[in-house]
Amino acid sequence: MSEFQRRRADLWRKVRGQGVEAFLVVNVEGSDQPNLRYLTGFTGTFGVLILAAEEALFLTDPRYTEQAQSQVDLPVGEVRGRWIPQVVERLRALGLRRVGIGSARTTLHLFEELKKAGEGLEFVPLGAPVEELRRVKTEDEIRKIREAVALTEAGLSWILKRLRPGMSEREVALELEFWYRREGADDVAFDLIIASGPRSARPHHRAGPERLRAGELVLLDVGVRVDGYCADLTRVVSLGRPDAKAVRAYELVLAANRAGIAAVRAGASGREVDAAARRVLEEAGLGELFGHGLGHGIGLEVHEGPRLSTASEDVLAPGMVVTVEPGVYFPGEFGVRIEDLVVVEENGARVLSAFPKEELVVLPGR
Ligand code: ZN
Ligand code: ZN
């Protein structure tokens, strides 16, 4: 049984008890790319998987027929022109009536269109069963994430040797992205965050035209995709001597990062792990400055389940891969975040990222 067959069998076991005869995954213009890739290996932007108890079928359009035939271990059908009625026709031809569909990635528009075209059929929203399966990674998936982490770290080392006052954030981001692509990344996993000086106080700052300056911090939140799988890593450095407040913030965030990692284990809740890290900052009077969750799952998507946050209802299980990324942000001044990736194990965490973090690295200020 191939990995994809096993995943589809797991999915079918998960949904069959909910009174449906099939499950439909529709990826249109990339709308559900990660789930479809997970279940079939298909990397194009348009594809439909019909998964029924006895039969599974993959549909795409002529742009992708040949690609699908080489990537997908299922019979590949082709649709041309208006595709929704043709998908509905296939469902009818298979004798299906009640068809489950994921709620998280199906637009309301698509859902309405399916209902309109599918007279006599019933489409049943079933939550996010594929996303739930994706939370727990196989060793093979973890190996791919490791590769993405290794490349991410190599690029970070490379760019840190080149950081100089006067470079713009955008220049740094572009040079690093170029390096990643040349060294074999599929792509960057997200718009690289290069945030210097007061902009580092904005957790999701986008690299802009502002220039790096001596005496300021530079926050680099970077990650690449390798073989579909993402990495996500944050480090902060100082260009020239940092002030005492920045050093102190760095030490506290590092302590919070370590407390978070120490709290990761199978059975721990996302809320408990978040609280373990948050407590360190709260006790130092900085709790208010840590405005986001501690971490998130990562895999085919850079942000996926489970969540580590004050609102999380998730419980960690072996094989989940999550980030641990506490931060403190002093508006108008600076921010510090330290982000690592870990695998949840029975009795703890296996840390995938190895980039040094023991102290605030000081780079030449000239
Ligand atoms: Zn990040
Ligand atoms: Zn992250």
Ligands bound to this protein structure: zinc ion
The CATH topology name of the largest domain reads Creatine Amidinohydrolase
> CATH superfamily of the largest domain, please?
Creatinase/methionine aminopeptidase superfamily
Helical stretch tally: 10
Query: Which class of secondary structure composition applies to the elements?
Result: alpha+beta
Oligomer status: single chain
Q: Assign the CATH class of the largest domain.
A: Alpha Beta
Radius of gyration: 23 Å
**Tally of distinct domains:** 2
Sheet of most strands: 6 strands, mixed
CATH architecture of the largest domain: Alpha-Beta Complex
Helix amount: 25-40%
Q: Report the principal-axis shape.
A: elongated
Mean pLDDT metric = 96
Strand order of the largest sheet: 4-3-2-1-5-6
Please provide a written account of the structure:
This protein is an alpha+beta fold. It folds into 2 domains: 3-134, Creatine Amidinohydrolase, Chain A, domain 1 (3-Layer(aba) Sandwich); 139-363, Creatinase/methionine aminopeptidase superfamily (Creatine Amidinohydrolase). The protein is 34% helix and 24% strand. It has helices at residues 3-15, 33-40, 65-71, 83-93, 108-117, 129-134, 139-160, 169-182, 244-263, 270-283, and strands at 22-28, 46-52, 56-60, 76-78, 98-101, 122-125, 187-188, 193-196, 217-222, 224-226, 229-230, 233-239, 295-297, 304-308, 321-324, 327-330, 334-337, 340-345, 348-351, 361-363. The chain has a 6-stranded mixed beta sheet with strand order 4-3-2-1-5-6, sandwiched between helices. A 4-stranded mixed beta sheet has the order 8-9-12-20. Strands 7-10-11 form a 3-stranded antiparallel beta sheet. Strand 3, helix 3 and strand 4 form a beta-alpha-beta unit. One zinc ion (ZN) binds at residues 232, 296, 323, 325, 339.
